[in-house]
Amino acid sequence: MESILELSGVTKSYGSKHALRDVSFQIQPGKIIGLLGSNGSGKSTLMKIAAGLMQPSSGQLLVCGEPSGPRTKAWTSFMPDKPLTESWMRVKDAIGFYQDFYSDFDEAKANEMLQFMNLNPSDKISTLSKGMNDRMQLTLALSRNAKLYLLDEPIGGVDPVAREKILDAIVKYYNEDSCLVISTHLVRDIERIFDEVIFIKNGNVVLQEEVETIRFTRGKSVDELFKEVFAE
Amino acid sequence: MTIVFDNNMPIYIQIMNYVKKQIITGKLSPGDKIESVRDLALELQINPNTIQRTFQELEREGIVETRRGLGRFVTSEESTIMLIKKEMAGELLERFVQGMKELGFNKNDIIAIVTDAVKDGGSDKHPDRSE
């Protein structure tokens, strides 16, 4: 089966600082992948490179077998950690904005998701709480019929109830032929929706494994393993 | 359906045990249709592939069967259901005996304690004490 995302030897430096060093991995369709690392480990840099928004200093990136470019960007739906919407927009304007930008945007799905998320189309985005804004951003990202979804910290900073709702929405609305990469450092709440996890530490990939294999062979949860690997 | 998961154990094994328990306690009857992978994934907030794997394993053990285009069903084979019941009872018993031995009880003590407990508990018959 062809990989949805393949990185080989990807390195990114900001001046003399290495954000990513020789990162290589492949991910297959139909999987939900957890990209896990502590703050400053290189998760967001990796997500931006995978989204084609940033060029690696060296190494190669392939999306569905093609090098990064306009075509691969059209297959990729990215939810950044900072919203792309403008403060003057209402919820319905944000939907319209995405619809104009992306030909794969599914309006029916967006409307269904808004309802599921308890978002009102006429609400102003600037008045939404942090949790509601995260729901909004997730709705925008998942309403596209993409091949690769990249969600950067979708549950960062929201309360447990909003977190549940976001996890529900991910399981309910993700497309089974695609691949979903979720970056987070909140492992415990979300580990049950992953197929595989990739641990990234100081810009290096230190582990890529199926979560059930971790539980089976090590007898511990992904969260415990995470704490071990990232202990200071 | 609610399960309290232990993230230290493979999730698919926990769901398998849960389904088996539902069958033994009669909450799922032989021949009953089982929820779809997607619905169950949503209900349990679990990765759909994990649910898929659970059903594959249950199918391999002959506990559920897929009928083309209709979905998944609990087996109608009473003998298979009896077998699960015995298997689960066996596991329970093994753990119990092991625990009692660790507490320092010998074979005769254990038999006496169990006989006593069964006698005490025999009067109040509450088959539905699960929830």
The helix/strand order of chain B is: HEHHEEHH
Sequence stretches where pLDDT stays below 50 over 5 or more residues of chain B: none
Straight-line distance between termini of chain B = 11 Å
In one word, what is the shape of chain A? globular
How many domains comprise the coordinates of chain A? 1
Average pLDDT confidence of chain B is 86
CATH homologous superfamily identity of chain A? P-loop containing nucleotide triphosphate hydrolases
CATH class designation of the largest domain in chain B? Mainly Alpha
Secondary structure tally, helices of chain B: 5
CATH topology of chain A: Rossmann fold
Please describe the structure with a list of short key phrases separated by commas or semicolons.
heterodimer, A: four-stranded antiparallel beta sheet, 27% strand, B: 131 residues, mainly alpha, 2 domains, three-stranded antiparallel beta sheet, elongated
Topology:
The complex is a heterodimer of chains A (232) and B (131).
Chain A lengths: L4 E10 L2 E11 L4 E5 L6 H8 L7 E6 L2 E2 L2 H5 L1 E4 L11 H11 L5 H10 L13 H13 L5 E5 L7 H14 L5 E6 L11 E6 L2 E7 H8 L3 H8 L3
Helix pairs in contact in A: 5-6
Chain B lengths: L10 H14 L8 E2 L2 H8 L3 H13 L3 E4 L3 E4 L3 H25 L4 H15 L10
Helix pairs in contact in B: 1-3, 1-4, 2-3
Provide a descriptive summary of the structure in words.
The complex is a heterodimer of chains A (232) and B (131). In chain A, 44% of the residues are buried. The model of chain A has no long low-confidence stretch (mean pLDDT 91). Chain A has helices at 43-50, 70-74, 91-101, 107-116, 130-142, 160-173, 211-218, 222-229; strands at residues 5-14, 17-27, 32-36, 58-63, 66-67, 76-79, 148-152, 179-184, 196-201, 204-210. By secondary structure, chain A is of the alpha/beta class. A six-stranded mixed beta sheet of chain A has the order 6-7-8-3-9-10, sandwiched between helices. Chain A has a four-stranded antiparallel beta sheet with strand order 2-1-4-5, with helices on one face. Chain A contains eight helices and ten strands. The longest helix of chain A has 14 residues, at 160-173. In chain A, strand 7 (148-152), helix 6 (160-173) and strand 8 (179-184) form a beta-alpha-beta unit. In chain B, helix 1 (11-24) packs across helix 3 (48-60), helix 1 (11-24) crosses helix 4 (78-102) and helix 2 (37-44) packs across helix 3 (48-60). Chain B is mainly alpha-helical. Chain B has helices spanning 11-24, 37-44, 48-60, 78-102, 107-121; strands spanning 33-34, 64-67, 71-74. Helices cover 57% and strands 8% of the residues of chain B. In chain B, a hairpin with a 3-residue loop joins strand 2 (64-67) and strand 3 (71-74). Chain B is elongated, with a radius of gyration of 18 Å. Chain B has two domains: 11-76, Arc Repressor Mutant, subunit A (Orthogonal Bundle); 79-121. Chain B has a three-stranded antiparallel beta sheet with strand order 1-3-2. The chains are: A alpha/beta (232), B mainly alpha (131). At the A-B interface, helix 6, helix 7 and helix 8 of A face helix 2 and helix 3 of B.
